[in-house]
Design a protein that fits this description.
Number of strands: 17
Bound molecules: zinc ion
Oligomer: single chain
Strand content: 25-35%
Helix content: 25-40%
Number of helices: 13
Length: 416
Amino acid sequence: MSEQKRSSLEIFRLKKLVEELESKEGKATELISQYVPPGRQISDAMTNLREEYGTSSNIKSKSTKKNVQDAIECIMQKLKLFKAPPPNGLVIFCGAIPRAGPGTEKMETFVIEPPEPISLYLYRCDARFYLDPIKDMLAEKDIYGLIVLDRSDATFALLKGRRLDVLETITSGAPSKHDAGGQSARRFQRLIEIAAHEFYKRVADHAEKDFLQIENLKGILIGGPGPTKNEFADGEFLHYQLQKKVLTVEDLGYTEEPGIHELIDKSAEALKNVDFLKDKKLVQNFLYLLAKSPNQVTYGEKDVRAKLEKGMVKSLLLSTDVETYRVKYKCQTCGNVKDGTFTKSQLLAKGGKENCDKCGGIMEEEDRKSIIEELAAMAEATNTKVEVVSIETDEGKMLLNSFGGIVAILRFTSHD
Ligand SMILES: [Zn+2]
């Protein structure tokens, strides 16, 4: 299996595209999804599409027939651009999408080279695009089960790519010193051992419930203060399928949720390719430079844009949750052009119009891009590395809330 990971920007773009495609609905069964796996001849797909075109002449509704046939032709035109499918195959979505009411449909086409090889060959005509195989590819595959335990409690969590879910904490009810009463020290010691054994069995039961059904669980991380975690890990209490996935047993200062975070930090080696840790490190590196060498970094849309224009940015960090748009307006009277950054609600209030500050005429919206797409495109044009960071980690939240979700590390120290 190829372990080559797609960049965070590629994944972000594909996720946004899938969201957009999911929202589209044809007015009838007339949206076409065509999957062509690698190794399949383009000519096979063409032959198949010609047959579908022929079959579609039986469609009763005139407008549906026309839309289906237009979409098939459109897909064939796109396929002609390829001699063979790309290494991961090719997916084309095409159909007439209504804009407002009936009669407002416009033909839309999307050509996707998937991030992983597709295995299915499929032609489907439906009221919606068929996206499941692409959504499966986007599903998080770096999944780890975390157990933090000491004598008194155990906490279970799941790390899924860039997301951490703390699932539950159970308590041991282990006897404490004052329960010893008049019993002999030896007998009391024996009771403690029995209680510990019972607790480990319960921890294993909860681990089985929380982790065993997870497909592609990559590993189990165990940690905690004191010798309890080792007794648990070495005693092979876990279901054998989970036991063999134990990657590391770490000594921790904390239990419960703080212990889970500590366990992630201490397991950096085992988790080095997991996005949760990658996101943390990217922001930590920026914060480190900000403190140590503040002229080597910049943040905020305006300053970052200015540095990008000069080609001064080495790497750009963008938060997935920056929700503003870069919009271009053009005056209908004097041709004056201006750009601005706005939120969705500001744009809604403007209704696609802006006043011209040169002639007082009316400017109309010409182009709209999300700020992430706009800055990422600028970065790519100047060979700047782009990382898109989620808000799942504390560092990711800080990137968004303290720095506007837009920061840059410069190629060299800047003095302007
Ligand atoms: Zn004007």
